[in-house]
Design brief:
The protein is mainly α. Helix content is about 60%, strand content about 5%. The chain contains six helices and four strands; from the N terminus they run ββααββαααα. The strands form two sheets. Strands 1-2 form a two-stranded antiparallel ribbon. Strands 3-4 form a two-stranded antiparallel sheet.
Length: about 140
């Protein structure tokens, strides 16, 4: 994409090798992954700061949210029961299936795709473009890690 301060950035040359429809798919995938990365970053920070849910993550295995919050984020992931990891993967799968069911498909919907009505707050096309570019830039930064 074209964004300040770098400008046009396509080091692999996708824009010359892929159709316009393919580029829409790549942009949609980039947005989806960047949103996940931004949420993961916030979760990482919350865990690192010691915030946690009350109660048990797994009563059967004696794992509490508090016990995981005392660990570094990578150690907390390793200490999570396998069933908890499976639930996370299953939730992601369901979210993917549901997002693919929207009609028109998000790669074909253009700038008006707004299934939950969040775009109404942007009164001008310029404000909308600024918000979209901000989300894209923050998402790219979050994906870097």
């Amino acid at each position: 994409g074209i964004q300040a301060p770098i400008g046009y950035f396509d080091p692999v040359g996708y824009s010359t090798k892929v159709s316009d429809e393919g580029m829409l798919w790549f942009r949609a995938a980039e947005l989806k992954h960047s949103r996940v990365a931004m949420l993961a970053f916030v979760g990482w920070c919350m865990n690192g700061a010691g915030y946690h849910f009350p109660g048990y993550l797994s009563e059967a295995e004696g794992v509490t949210f508090e016990s995981l919050s005392k660990l570094a984020p990578k150690e907390a992931w390793e200490a999570m029961p396998t069933s908890g990891k499976a639930q996370i993967v299953f939730s992601i799968f369901i979210a993917e299936v549901v997002s693919e069911m929207y009609k028109p498909h998000y790669t074909q919907a253009g700038d008006d795709f707004d299934p939950i009505g969040g775009l109404k707050r942007y009164k001008t096309p310029e404000a909308m473009l600024k918000a979209q570019n901000t989300e894209l830039a923050n998402g790219r930064l979050a994906m870097i890690g």
